[in-house]
Specification:
Blueprint (H helix, E strand, L loop, with lengths): L6 E3 L1 H31 L7 H25 L1 E3 L13 E6 L5 E7 L10 E3 L3 H6 L7 E6 L2 E11 L1
Parallel strand pairs: 1-2, 4-5
Antiparallel strand pairs: 3-4, 3-7, 6-7
Helix pairs in contact: 1-2
């Protein structure tokens, strides 16, 4: 039997997933069920696009619910307290050595990665380069558009 892969998440990330799952179960399911009911009431299902759309929405919704249930079931909450080495869960200030711009990022599991919100996956090139680094280190990450160089300015737990 294959070993179940754990899902690395922060405490906040786990709470977000639980809230989304609750919303999908309590609100979205009822809405899709109502759409199905209304489409069925229209009669002939063989040429009923509303029915097809509602069935597709239902399949997508149930797939997302199943995915969230699996991620929550296998969640491993990241407890990071080190301020000396970067690990999953670390919040760090890095300086792009080419642009000269400093930014604060948090290293998270791939499930809650969102670069636009400063949440960098530990599996991304930049995340992999940062994990294990210390304040003052210069790291290089291989990106599609070339090598990115960052200096680790500071580490917050």
């Amino acid at each position: 039997m294959a070993e179940v892969q754990s899902t690395l998440v922060t405490k906040e990330g786990l709470e977000k997933m639980k809230a989304e799952l609750d919303h999908l179960r309590s609100v979205e399911r009822a809405e899709v069920a109502q759409r199905l009911k209304e489409a069925i009431a229209m009669g002939d299902l063989s040429e009923n696009s509303e029915y097809d759309e509602a069935k597709n929405a239902q399949a997508f919704l149930e797939g997302r619910i199943s995915e969230l249930e699996q991620k929550i079931r296998t969640a491993k909450v990241i407890e990071n307290t080190s301020k000396t080495r970067i690990d999953v869960g670390s919040t760090v200030v890095i300086k792009d050595l080419e642009e000269g711009i400093e930014e604060k990022v948090k290293i998270v599991g791939s499930t809650e990665s969102n670069p636009f919100e400063g949440l960098i996956s530990n599996e991304s090139p930049v995340g992999r380069a940062l994990v294990g680094a210390k304040a003052g280190d210069i790291v290089e990450a291989e990106a599609p558009n070339g090598v990115l160089k960052y200096k680790v300015v500071s580490i917050e737990a």
